[in-house]
Amino acid sequence: MPREAAFGIFPMAKKVSIPRRLFLAAAMLVALSCGAPTGDPVGFQGPETPVTKVTLYPADVGWRDTFYDVFAPTGRHYRLAVGSYGAPDRFRSRALLRFEVGDVPKEVPISKIRSVDLSVPYLRVSGSLNDDVYAEGDVTIEVRPLWRDFDEDRATWWRASRKENWTAEGGDYGPAAADAVVGRPSYQRQFINYDLTALALEWMANPYRNYGVVLKLSDEEESAGAGIKEFYSTNQYTKTNTPRLEIAYVDDEGEKAYYAVLPEKDCFITEYDGEFGGGEIHGYDEFLDFGSFNGYARRTLFYFDVSPTATGIPATASVARARLRLYYQPAVRDERVYIAVYRLTAPFEEGAPQDILELQQFHDNYAYIDREFKKEPPGYVDLYINPLVQEWISGTHPNFGLVIKAADESAAQTFPRFGAKDNSDPDRRPYLEIEYTLPPEPWYVTPE
Questions:
Q1: Of 19, 67, 71, 292, which sits 20 to 30 A from 269 (CA to CA)?
Q2: d(C-alpha 404, C-alpha 344), whole Å
Q3: Mean pLDDT of 226-242
Q4: φ, ψ for residue 326 (rounded to 5)?
Q5: Nearest by Cα to 341 from 311, 382, 309
Q6: Burial class of residue 375 in the structure, from the number of CB atoms within 10 Å of its CB (0-12 exposed, 13-18 middle, 19+ buried)
Q7: C-alpha span between 338 and 244 (Å, rounded)
Q8: CB-side exposure of 377: number of CA atoms within 13 Å?
C-alpha cells in the first residue's frame, strides 16, 4: 500500500483551469438547486420581444425640411471653368493653378531658358459647358500672379483655405502678366498659350513668391453674358490634355529643347449672384435639392422628433431599422452622384434665410451613409439611418437633425432632388419608418 494511502493522504490532484463564466454559471445552478432565496435577476424568460413599428409623417409635429446653397471646392474637377454668364443672376468663375518650378532639373538652368509658356488645352466635348450656349462668343482671358497660397480642396470665392480668407473676394492677385482671346471651341484639341517667361523666371529666382496664377476674364462686368470656357485640369486622366508650363531652353549641345511642368494643384472658384442671395428662403419648396455643380453646392436638411413623447419609443429601445423614404427626382444632367448623411451639431429653422443656413454646422468626420445614386428613374429610395436614430433615442447625441449632401462636393456635377414635406403630391412626400425592440423581461428567483 502506498505510504500516502496508509496515512489517509492522497496525492494532490492536477490543477485544472475553469473559465470564469463557466464557474459562475455552475455556481448559479448550485444556488438554484439549493433553493437559496434571492431577489436578483438571473436570466430572461420567453422568446424575444416583438418588433414594434412607428412611422413619422411630414404632417407630424416637429418635422422640418429645407435646403440651402454653399460655395463648394473644385479641386477634384477634371475641368477648370473661366468666364462670366447671365444677368442679373450672374455666374463668375476663375481658375487657380500653381506650378512647382523648383522641380525643374539642373540640366535646365535659368541662364539657358529662352521662353516659358502656359499652355492650356481647350476642347469641345459633348455634354460639357464648351458644348453649351455658355461657351458662345469671344472673351479675353488674362493670367495674373496670385499673392496668396490656396488649398485646392478648400478654396472658394471667399476662402483661400480652411483657415484663411481672401483679402478681396475672388482671390488676391497682381496685374495681368499675359492675355489671350478665346473663342468658341472646336472638337479638335487646341491650346491657349500665354507667355509667362518673366513671371516664371521670377519664381525660379525667388521660390517664396510663387503662389501660382489666376485665369479670369479681363473685363468681367462688360463680358457678363459673353460666355464661360472650360479647360482641362490636372485631374484629367490623359496627361497630354492637362495644363502645363512649356519651358524652351538650349541643351548642352546647343540644340533647342523643351521641358514641361504639370500643375502641382489647380481648381476654380465661382460666384453666383442668383439664389445665393442672403434673404432667399427654401423652407417651403416642392423639392429639396442636393449635389453640386461648377463650384457651388446644395445641401438638404431634415429634422424629425423621435423623442418618447412624440413616438412612444423609450430610451432603452434597440432600433432594428430606421428607413427614411425619399421620393427621388433625377436632375436634368442625369449623372451619378455619391451622397453622404451627417449628423447636425446645431439646430436649424426651416424658414431661415440663406445667409443663416449656409453657416449650418454638422459632424463631418463621420458619414452615417455614403452611397451612390446612378441614373435612376423617379421614385422612392431608401436611406437606412439606424445608427443615427439609435443615438438620438438613447441620448448618445442630441437630435438636431441631419444633412444630406454630395459626398464629394468638389467632384459632383449634378443637382438631383427629393420630394419635400410641402410637395403638392402626397405620393412624393418623405416619411420615416422606425422598427424597434424592447429589452426582454428579467427572470427573478423568489424564495419558496
A1: 67
A2: 10
A3: 81
A4: -125, 135
A5: 382
A6: exposed
A7: 31
A8: 0
**DSSP code at position 78:** S
Give the number of C-alpha atoms closer than 13 A to the C-alpha of residue 140, restricted to the C-beta side.
Answer: 10
Task: Locate 71 and state its grid cell.
Answer: 460655395
pLDDT of residue 35: 45
Compute the distance between CA of residue 419 and CA of residue 430 in angstroms, rounded to an integer.
Answer: 6
Q: What per-residue confidence (pLDDT) applies to 72?
A: 77
Q: How far apart are CA 223 and CA 86, in angstroms?
A: 10
Closest to 205 in 3D by CA, of 322, 283, 141, 113:
113
Mean pLDDT score of the chain: 82
Instruction: Look up cell 434571492; give the residue.
Output: 38
Domains in the chain, please, with CATH? 52-71+275-437 (2.60.120), 91-272 (2.60.120)
CB atoms within 10 A of CB 18: 9
Of the candidates 296, 330, 274, the one whose C-alpha atom is nearest the C-alpha of residue 81 is 296
pTM of the model: 0.69
Residues 87-96 pLDDT 10s:
656 778 999 9
C-alpha cell at 85: 454668364
Partners of residue 95 on adjacent β-strands: 215, 268
Pairing of strands 431-437, 318-329: antiparallel
Contact 177, 193 (CB under 8 A): no
Counting DSSP H helices and E strands in the chain, the numbers are 6, 26
Q: Which three cell numbers, joined as nine digits, stand for 437?
A: 425592440
Distance (Å, whole) CA 301 – CA 288: 9
